[in-house]
Structures are given as structure tokens and as C-alpha cells.
Design a protein that fits this description.
- The structure holds two protein chains of two kinds.
- Chain A is 10% helix and 39% strand.
- Chain A is mainly β.
- In chain A, the strands form three sheets. In chain A, strands 1-2-5-8-11-14-17-20-23-26-29-32-35-38 form a 14-stranded parallel β-sheet, covered by helices on one side. A 13-stranded parallel β-sheet of chain A has the order 3-6-9-12-15-18-21-24-27-30-33-36-39, with no helix packed on it. A twelve-stranded parallel β-sheet of chain A has the order 4-7-10-13-16-19-22-25-28-31-34-37.
- In chain A, strand 1, helix 2 and strand 2 form a beta-alpha-beta unit.
- The longest helix of chain A is centred in the first third of the chain and has 14 residues.
- The radius of gyration of chain A is 25 Å and the shape is elongated.
- Chain B is an all-alpha fold.
- Helices cover 85% and strands 0% of the residues of chain B.
- Classes of the chains: A mainly beta, B mainly alpha.
- Chains A and B meet through helix 3 and helix 4 of A and helix 3, helix 7, helix 8, helix 9 and helix 10 of B.
Chain lengths: 401, 261
């Protein structure tokens, strides 16, 4: 059946389609008009120029491509492209200035209840929302550059926004200056890879109630928080880089109410907090490198049954803090650069267990003003005594390799 | 006359080799640390402990030993027609200068040898050196103050060690206690003010807040950096350290002028 559909699509594609050229000098001057006269599976080629358009409703499968510098300015106060059909392809265009709104989610491209759409090689500047997909599936958003200059979280939209979608691929995009770089809500089985998401006001990538997604090889830098994964299950997070997410409630990776997921081979570098875990359960964290962070991992007491294996903790001010005195998580074969024990039989595994939670880190977590004592001699004496005879910190013997 | 006293004192200090030894020890430690750590920021944090913990202790002990060992020399000077002010200044500077030389050799040379050519590195190392210089001056003038006020060498050493323990450990313990007791209040500013009353804490904060470590520590860290990490903050805290050096010096001088030897 599937092939039959495909064949018929191919047949249609080769049979009856025509190419409509849109240019400022030609007889078809607006995209609006071209879309209106186009038949399904036609190609629209937009030639170089600056177009000013109101909402364009695309309700048939079309292939829209830009030739040269095609700039489309939003003239209305609603969405720019509103796609309501399957198999729409949009590429090589430059969308600009979709207005901010507090009532509707105005976006440069909004795709509603559609399948197999492709948004490739476009530029988006200074839009409220850039790409907005809702109730869609099988779509691809690739190689787009999405830049905005949002000032406040409340008055700016998301770069790529998915609502109630399935099977979406978001690949090799660059998103900057939006509220959330990429946002997924109620979206399942999506794949997000090789994107760069930076300088966004809130999160680089944000999951809400989105299960079974994967994100690989992305880079998140200078966002409010790198990635927030909330209320989701079975997420795979691998080979990503989380850099320079700094600020008080700033995290490289924020895990909240998330279960059965994997965090592997990521690099966390110069974040205020590398990983923040709250109500995170059954998560495997392995092969990650956490380096130069203020707090490597903040692990709240309601996070249990997590496995930390083969991670590197390098040059962090505090490796781990927790508000719990009990150890409900499993640590093994991690490298801790602040380990002070010895390895007598030289098997690469320290002979004295390592306690990653230092007394001072616990004190500072409760009383941030005491940061004034950071690296003082008194604190090293205090930490040393606590290490010999733990009274206040969690009893967490963690092996060192 | 002051120049002559400084010169003799200086030569005496060089002759007894302790300053040379200190300079060498510092040099070895500093270059070792530079080799061990991959980032200079970590090296600076380790160096910081030497600068604000070890240097004060050495200066205190040194100052007192030198003062008592040159007791007869001081008496000899006192019978000459020289103003006591000049004698005191001469003695203090005569021990401070070789100490500063030792610091410059022990810290400054490794800093230059392992230098990274960035503005940040230059600023951090300049601040570190300045803190080292000031903390040695502070504790040498304190040593002289203690020595002038006490008759007995052992007693003076005891007081000196207690002074060091107070500044290096006890004070921070009290700060911790205070912070825990008043944890319901916003404490960032009071903590900063409290730390200004301890030259060891103040020196540590100036160096740390210019190393970008504190910015990683969230709100409080950023707040501290806002106060101490800018030009005004740095200037004010160095001025405070200057006050910390001159007040014991003046007190010691007052006693020395009136003292009945």
C-alpha cells in the first residue's frame, strides 16, 4: 500500500506538474497569488528580491524554492506561511519580522496537521516563532539559521516549536536569541541532531511531556540553561556539548521528573551547574566529561536509582552536592580529579573510597553567602576532618578509577 | 641615616641566607605547581594558599626573630644621635625589602617562565604579586608590633603564632558560625564587610574574584564579583590592605618611640 502511494506520488510528480516562477518584475508578483493558482505538486520558484506578504495559506502539496536572495517580510500581524497540507517543501528563503503577539503564536512557518513536510536551508531573522509544527509527523527541519533578538522571556517565542508531533527530524540548524531554541511539547519519537543552540533566553532545548526522543551531537552554549528535560521518559542524550551556561538558576542539563533515560558521552564545560537532577529516576549517565563547572552535579534527594559510570569530573569547584544524606544512586568507575586516596596495587582503581560531596559544598548549598570562604585554609581543614570522620555529609563511598 | 640602617639590615638578612632559602623554596613550589596543573587558574588557586597562609607565618616568625636577634644592635643605634623614627623605619624596611625580593624571585619568576600571554593572565598575576607583597608587609609590621610590646622572645613568638591562627583559621570559623546563625537574612554584603576585617580573607577574595571562578558559583559569586571584581572594588580592597599594613606599623612606632629600653 505504501509503495502504491509512493508510486502514485511519483506519477503525479512526473506527469502534470508545472513550475511557476515568481519575480518582482514578472507577471506573477506575489507568492500569495502563485500559491492560489498553483495545482498540487507544482513547483514555485521565487526569484531574488524583497517580498512583502501577509499570511499565505498553503493547502496543497507544493515545492517552494528560493533562487538567490529571497527575503520575505511579514506585512500582516499573523503567521507568514501557514501550511495545512502534506508533502510541502520550503527551501532557500529568508523570513523576516513576524510580529510578536501575546495572543497567538505567530510564526514564520506554521505547519498544522501535515505529514512529510521539509523545511530546508532557510534563514529566519527577528521572528516571534520561526518554525512551528503542530499535530504533524514525518517532517524534517534541516540546515536552517534561526536568529532573533529577544529581550524578555515573556515577549519572545521559540526558534523551533513542536506541539503534539511525532517522528520529526531536526538537524543541523543554528538557533540563537529566542526564548527556547528548540521546544518539544507532547511530541514523541523525534530525532534532534547536530544543531547549535546558543544565547537563547531560557533553554537551548526544552522537552515537556515528550517521550522517546533522541538528541545527538548538538551544541548548547550561553543559554539560560542548556537543555531542560521535564516530565518525559526514555530520552537518549548523547555526544552533546553544553558550554558556558552561566547564571544563578543556570544549568548545562536540567533533568526534572524524567525516567529511564540515557545521558552519555556528553561534555559539560564551564556551566554554573553541569547537571541538575530533580525527581530523576533510573537514568544512566556514562562517559560524560564534566569540567570547570561551579557545581558538577546537583542531585536532589528525590532522584534515585540513577547510575553514574565512567564519567570524568575535572577541575570543578564542587563535584557533587546533594540535599540528601542517603545514597540512592549508584556510582562506579568514575574519575575524580580531586581524589586524595592511593592506589596500592596499581589497578587504576583507588583503594580508598571517594566521597564526592564535600562538607563545604553542603554548607554553601544551604547558605550561598558563605561562598566568601571558598578555597580558604579553614575550609580545607574542615573538609579534611569531614573526610576522615564524616558526620554531616552523605555517606557515599564512591570508587575512583 | 635611614638608608644606612636599611642597607646594613638588608645585607645582614642576605648574609644569614634565610631569605634566599625562602625565595628558592617558593620558586620550587611555584614552578612545580605550574607544571602540575593544566590550567593556570588552578595553579593560581594553589599558589594563593602559599601566598596568604605560608607567607604570613614566615613573615611573623621572621620579623620577631630578627628583632630579638638584633637587640644589641638596636641598643647600639639608640645611643647614637639618631631619631627613633628613623631607626624603626630602617629596621622595618630592612627586613621587608629582602622579603619582597624573595617573593618576586619565588613567585614572579615562575609566573614569567610559565606565562600565558593574555591580558587576563597578566592581570591575575599582577594582582597575586601585589597581594603577596602587601600580605608580607602586613605581617612584618605586625611582627614588629608584637616584638616591641613584648619583653620575652618566646612570648612574642607565642603571640605571633596565635595571631596567625586567628587570621588564617579562627576568624573564618567565626564567620561560618555567624553565617549559619543568621542564615535567615541576606548575608552577602555583611560577609564581604566581615572579610574586610581580615587581611588574609581579603587577599584571597581579591585573587579569586579575578580568576572567574566565582562567576561559576551562581548569584552570590556574581554579586561578590560585582563588588570586588571591578576597578573600584580592587582599588578599595588594596587600599584596605594598605591600611592593614600601616596601622600596626604606626602603633609599633608609637610604642618604640616611648619605650624605655
Amino acid at each position: 500500500m505504501k509503495y502504491l502511494v509512493l508510486l502514485s506520488v511519483l506519477y503525479l510528480g512526473t506527469g502534470n506538474t508545472s513550475v511557476i516562477r515568481i519575480s518582482l518584475k514578472g507577471h506573477c508578483k506575489t507568492i500569495q497569488e502563485a500559491v492560489r493558482i498553483a495545482k498540487p505538486y507544482d513547483s514555485l520558484t521565487i526569484l531574488e528580491g524583497i517580498y512583502s506578504e501577509k499570511t499565505i495559506i498553503i493547502d496543497k502539496p507544493l515545492q517552494i524554492t528560493g533562487h538567490g536572495k529571497v527575503i520575505i517580510n511579514a506585512a500582516g500581524d499573523k503567521d507568514l506561511f501557514f501550511v495545512q497540507s502534506d508533502n510541502v517543501q520550503i527551501s532557500g528563503l529568508h523570513f523576516k519580522n513576524v510580529v510578536r503577539s501575546f495572543i497567538s503564536d505567530n510564526s514564520a512557518i506554521k505547519i498544522e496537521s501535515a505529514k512529510n513536510c521539509r523545511i530546508v536551508n532557510n534563514f529566519f531573522t527577528n521572528n516571534f516563532f520561526a518554525v512551528y509544527l503542530s499535530r504533524s509527523s514525518g517532517c524534517v527541519v534541516q540546515n536552517n539559521t534561526i536568529i532573533s533578538s529577544g529581550q524578555h522571556e515573556s515577549s519572545s517565542g521559540n526558534g523551533i516549536h513542536l506541539w503534539n508531533c511525532r517522528d520529526i527530524t531536526i538537524k543541523s540548524n543554528r538557533v540563537a536569541g529566542h526564548r527556547d531554541g528548540i521546544y518539544l511539547e507532547f511530541s514523541k519519537v523525534s530525532y534532534i541532531s547536530n544543531n547549535t543552540s546558543e544565547k537563547n533566553l531560557r533553554y537551548g532545548l526544552h522537552f515537556m511531556f515528550s517521550d522517546s526522543c533522541k538528541y545527538y551531537k548538538n551544541e548548547f552554549s550561553k543559554n539560560g540553561a542548556g537543555v531542560a528535560v521535564m516530565y518525559s521518559r526514555v530520552i537518549e542524550m548523547k555526544f552533546n556539548t553544553f558550554v558556558n551556561n552561566q547564571g544563578t538558576s543556570s544549568y548545562g542539563l536540567l533533568l526534572k521528573d524524567i525516567k529511564d533515560s540515557q545521558v552519555a558521552n556528553n561534555i559539560f564545560h564551564e556551566n554554573t551547574t553541569g547537571i541538575f537532577m530533580e525527581a530523576a529516576m533510573r537514568i544512566s549517565l556514562y562517559n560524560n566529561t564534566i569540567r570547570n563547572c561551579g557545581w558538577g552535579i546537583k542531585l536532589m534527594a528525590n532522584s534515585t536509582e540513577n547510575i553514574f559510570k565512567n564519567n570524568n569530573f575535572l577541575a570543578n569547584t564542587f563535584d557533587i552536592t546533594s540535599n540528601s544524606r542517603h545514597d540512592g544512586n549508584k556510582f562506579s568507575s568514575n574519575y575524580w580529579d580531586s581524589y586524595k586516596g592511593y592506589d596500592f596495587n596499581r589497578d587504576g582503581i583507588g583503594d580508598v573510597p571517594y566521597y564526592p560531596v564535600s562538607l563545604f559544598s553542603v554548607i554553601v548549598a544551604e547558605n550561598p553567602a558563605l561562598l566568601v570562604l571558598l578555597k580558604s585554609f579553614f575550609v580545607s581543614v574542615l573538609d579534611a576532618t569531614e573526610r576522615i570522620a564524616p558526620v554531616l555529609t552523605a555517606v557515599w563511598p564512591v570508587n575512583c578509577s | 641615616m635611614i638608608i644606612n640602617i636599611i642597607k646594613y639590615q638588608f645585607l645582614d638578612m642576605i648574609k644569614n641566607r634565610w631569605t634566599i632559602l625562602l625565595g628558592l623554596a617558593l620558586f620550587l613550589m611555584a614552578s612545580g605547581l605550574f607544571r602540575l596543573h593544566e590550567s593556570y587558574e588552578k595553579t593560581f588557586v594553589s599558589l594563593l594558599n602559599i601566598v596568604i597562609i605560608l607567607v604570613p607565618l614566615v613573615c611573623l616568625a621572621f620579623g620577631i626573630l630578627v628583632y630579638y636577634n638584633s637587640g644589641e644592635y638596636i641598643l647600639f643605634l639608640l645611643v647614637q644621635p639618631i631619631e627613633r623614627l628613623h631607626i624603626y623605619i630602617g629596621l622595618t624596611l630592612g627586613i621587608m625589602l629582602p622579603m619582597l625580593l624573595a617573593l618576586f624571585f619565588g613567585l614572579g619568576v615562575p609566573m614569567m617562565l610559565f606565562a600565558e600571554f593574555s591580558a587576563k593572565y597578566l592581570i591575575s598575576s599582577a594582582i597575586m604579586l601585589l597581594v603577596a607583597v602587601l600580605s608580607s608587609s602586613i605581617f612584618i609590621s605586625q611582627a614588629f608590633l608584637i616584638a616591641v610590646y613584648t619583653e620575652d622572645k618566646t612570648k612574642a613568638l607565642g603571640v605571633a603564632i596565635f595571631t596567625w591562627i586567628t587570621f588564617a583559621i579562627l576568624y573564618d570559623g567565626l564567620v561560618l558560625l555567624a553565617a549559619i546563625n543568621f542564615s535567615d537574612y541576606p548575608l552577602e554584603l555583611p560577609m564581604l564587610i566581615l572579610s574586610a576585617f581580615n587581611p588574609v580573607d581579603l587577599g584571597r577574595l581579591i585573587v579569586l574574584l579575578n580568576l572567574d571562578i566565582a562567576t561559576l558559583m551562581g548569584y552570590s559569586g556574581r554579586l561578590y564579583q560585582n563588588y570586588l571584581g571591578n576597578h573600584i572594588g580592587i582599588t578599595v580592597s588594596f587600599l584596605l590592605l594598605g591600611v592593614w599594613a600601616s596601622v600596626p606599623f604606626l602603633l609599633g612606632l608609637r610604642k618604640f618611640r616611648k619605650k624605655d629600653f
